[in-house]
Amino acid sequence: MKPIRFLPLLLLLLAACGNPEPFHHEFASGHYSSDIVSCVPYAREVSGINLRGDAGIWWREAQGRYERGSFPAAGAVLVLKSTSHMHSGHVAVVKNVLGPRRINVTHSNWGDSRSTRHIIYDSMLAEDVSPDNDWTQVRFWNDARNVLGFPYPAYGFIYP
Fold first, then answer.
1. Which of 57, 83, 140, 154 is the most exposed place for a label (fewest CB within 10 A)?
2. Average pLDDT over residues 71-78
3. Neighbour-count burial of 146, counting CB atoms closer than 10 A to its CB (0-12 exposed, 13-18 middle, 19+ buried)
4. pLDDT above 70 (res 82)
5. Is the pLDDT at 89 greater than 80, yes or no?
6. How far from 93 is each of 48, 89, 139, CA to CA, in Å?
């Protein structure tokens, strides 16, 4: 084969290496990791909440061990339910509360592509879009599209 045929593949592989520098946008900031860091050990480390298993079972596992509720608080873990799109659920730690329906979270392994799953988000906007204002439907900032993304079902918050 001619070497020129490999050029597009080489460029694609180099682009997939990612940018090791931190990034900051208005509603999301973070840094790239060479490894995919699962949301569960990341949330456990950041929050100090010592639960195991897939993110989607954290709500049940927290019962009787940690307080749970429907109001955000700094340091609390937001637990998303398992869905057909997100089989294991997801957890994110509240960094700060911006208002009754907006928070900043820190989390990892979030996104719909291999490259976004290598990002550890130091801060990302999340918004409650539930009809009863109880954080049972949450949208996260999608920086690539510059919008709040698809609504995800959530259980609520586990408090440290």
1. 83
2. 98
3. exposed
4. yes
5. yes
6. 10, 14, 15
Read off the pLDDT of each residue in 60-64 and give the average, rounded to a whole number: 98
Residue 120, token pair as written in the block? 């550890």
Question: Distance between CA 32 and CA 154 in Å, rounded?
Answer: 26
- The strand pairing partners of 154, in sequence order, are 80
Q: List Cβ<8 Å contacts ≥24 apart for 55-61.
A: 55/79, 55/80, 55/82, 55/88, 55/89, 55/90, 55/91, 56/80, 56/81, 56/82, 56/86, 56/87, 56/88, 56/89, 56/90, 57/89, 58/89, 58/91, 58/158, 59/155, 59/156, 59/158
Contact status, residue 89 vs residue 82, Cβ threshold 8 Å = yes
Distance CA 73, CA 103 (A): 9
77, amino acid identity? V
Dihedral of CA 121/32/37/112: which sign? positive
Q: Quick check: helix, strand or coil at residue 158?
A: strand
Confidence at 5, pLDDT banded by 50, 70, 90: low
Q: What is the arithmetic mean of pLDDT over 2-15? A: 45
